[in-house]
């Protein structure tokens, strides 16, 4: 099956897609975009979070064919050249990264939160990140990073 | 595996008629998990995300009808005022990412006894609209759930929309789980007050082979609630209601909780939710007077 997706602003055509495979597999294995991470494959961990038509989704739960004609923005598409997005920069500055596996999903989820709610309360931050698991940091530095990004 | 991409409801129904074994997929929050884990290899997937009418809604003075593939996030934002109970339950589904994709149609299609929206649909007299190339049917939610993960759909049918009366009184939903997000209900409870009919609907989830209405407990409320001049409910009445709700459950022991715990927790949820809903009703009556 052939699938056409706009990924990070670029029209991409992918051939020989198995109809049961996920958007995550297409991004990582067929388009060479390993930023979105493959962990739970059941929507529990949020590490594969990407924008699809502007809405954050778990790429592991989107069938490749469902992404046909859609616009996908991955963590690779957040920075402008060498300049990190403010959420990425805040994660670096706050030390919100340990092993780093959950980071891309958290960055996309936090990016979406700040787009919708520029000055979120702590409960709003917690709610927005409820679908992203981190097993290293205990979340405190991550919350610091989101607060920092909101101020920047 | 084939990937079928209808762009209209008519086309989707023709495809389902020709390929009844095709598995409908909308948000993918159940179907993709089964594919990712190799638990299921359907001959075809029927993608419903391009069928615009399945994600639309409409309302008149008394009834809201929304498409089976309307994601929870939109339901909460766009219909939460008219359908407060369903909005409360929808907010407990998964995470923001899951609610951006998951749908009530998917909840009904999967027919898991633990599906979050089922108790609200039962308590609020929802009707499930289904269609096939042969025609359409309206199935009351109370007749839709047939067994564990079994529903009243025929193989060539698709769930098209859900129809509910607009709330005419307070509605509540409560669920027990290990945290506030990403939780499959250990047990759940919904209550909808219907002041116009001087009655309340109530239902339980994740505590029997199917979600189910708790009719004895509903009848008890008809006896004890004074809708004309609502008084504070004595604790004894709330407790009795909780006991009747728990007695309607037939839970099992599983990894999420024991049967005994589920019964106990249901009694607590029902007692509290009744208190919240009835207090809100009394408050509303007072401010109207």
TrEMBL record, chain A:
Keywords: 2Fe-2S, Iron, Iron-sulfur, Metal-binding, Oxidoreductase
Domain of life: Bacteria
Occurrences of domain 2Fe-2S ferredoxin-type (ranges): 1-78
InterPro entries, per database record: 2Fe-2S-bd, 2Fe-2S-bd_dom_sf, 2Fe-2S_ferredoxin-like_sf, 2Fe-2S_ferredoxin-type, 2Fe2S_fd_BS, Beta-grasp_dom_sf, Diverse_Oxidoreductases
Gene3D superfamilies: 3.10.20.30, [2Fe-2S]-binding domain (1.10.150.120)
SUPFAM superfamilies: 2Fe-2S ferredoxin-like (SSF54292), CO dehydrogenase ISP C-domain like (SSF47741)
Pfam families: Fer2, Fer2_2
Keyword Disulfide bond: no
Protein name in the entry: Carbon-monoxide dehydrogenase small subunit
Organism of provenance: Kibdelosporangium persicum
Organism taxonomic ancestry: Bacteria, Bacillati, Actinomycetota, Actinomycetes, Pseudonocardiales
TrEMBL record, chain B:
InterPro entries referenced in this protein's UniProt entry, alphabetically: CO_DH_flav_C, CO_DH_flav_C_dom_sf, Diverse_Substr_Oxidored, FAD-bd_PCMH, FAD-bd_PCMH-like_sf, FAD-bd_PCMH_sub1, FAD-bd_PCMH_sub2, Mopterin_DH_FAD-bd
Domain spans labelled FAD-binding PCMH-type: 1-169
Sorted UniProt keywords: FAD, Flavoprotein, Oxidoreductase
SUPFAM superfamilies: CO dehydrogenase flavoprotein C-terminal domain-like, FAD-binding/transporter-associated domain-like
Domain of life: Bacteria
Protein name: Carbon-monoxide dehydrogenase medium subunit
Source organism (scientific name): Kibdelosporangium persicum
